[in-house]
Amino acid sequence: MKKIPLLLAGALLALAGCAAETGEHLDTGDYRIYYSALEDQYASMALGYENWELPQDTQPLSGLLRALFQEPESPDLAAPFPDGVRLLSWELLEEGCLHLDLSEQYGSLTGVDLTVADACLTLTLCQVEGVESVYVTVEGDEIPYRPIQQLRPEDVLLSNGQESPPPEQAEPEASTGTQPAP
């Protein structure tokens, strides 16, 4: 599949050394919620994540959607979405495409901010079995200045501009549950 860079933001993420880990979660019921990494903590990373355990009797997709739109617990991370953004609706379509319709505030994102928010949505939600891509609209309309509309983890992020992700980094022994994106 052809890799499609996302304007200046694609270059930023490639330089940040972020790479997608798709289709897997830590243990059954464990997921990663991706957020914007604050510069002080992860100077070379655009994204970070918090480990999240699926509450009992919660479906993965609806649980992750609720968690994703909450503020992170770590002070080293920030929600990538503008204030007031809301999930208006979602639907898992055929071929594993998750359609999210978000409120008008999401439409105010451009450039790097849009790419980071898209990456957080895509990396978080594509961990769910059966979700292969994310398609985001704003109040029913596509974002016209986005070069691709259906986002897949392998299309959104490149590792140092290379075709393959970097080797996994060993996690620190004393973990606070907050990790930079791989």
Mean pLDDT: 76
Low-confidence stretches: 1-27, 158-176
Tell me the number of helical segments per DSSP (H or I, 4 or more residues long): 4
Helix content: 10-25%
Tell me the count of domains: 1
Principal-axis shape equals: globular
Total beta strands: 9
Distance between the termini: 21 Å
Write up what this structure looks like.
- The protein is an alpha+beta fold and 182 residues long.
- It has one domain.
- The chain has helices at residues 7-16, 60-68, 111-125, 153-156, and strands spanning 30-37, 47-53, 77-78, 87-92, 97-102, 133-138, 141-142, 150-151, 178-180.
- The strands form two sheets. Strands 4, 5, 6, 7 and 8 form a five-stranded mixed sheet that branches.
- Strand 5 (97-102), helix 3 and strand 6 form a beta-alpha-beta unit.
- Mean pLDDT is 76; it is low at 1-27 and 158-176.
Secondary structure topology:
Layout: H1 7-16, E1 30-37, E2 47-53, H2 60-68, E3 77-78, E4 87-92, E5 97-102, H3 111-125, E6 133-138, E7 141-142, E8 150-151, H4 153-156, E9 178-180
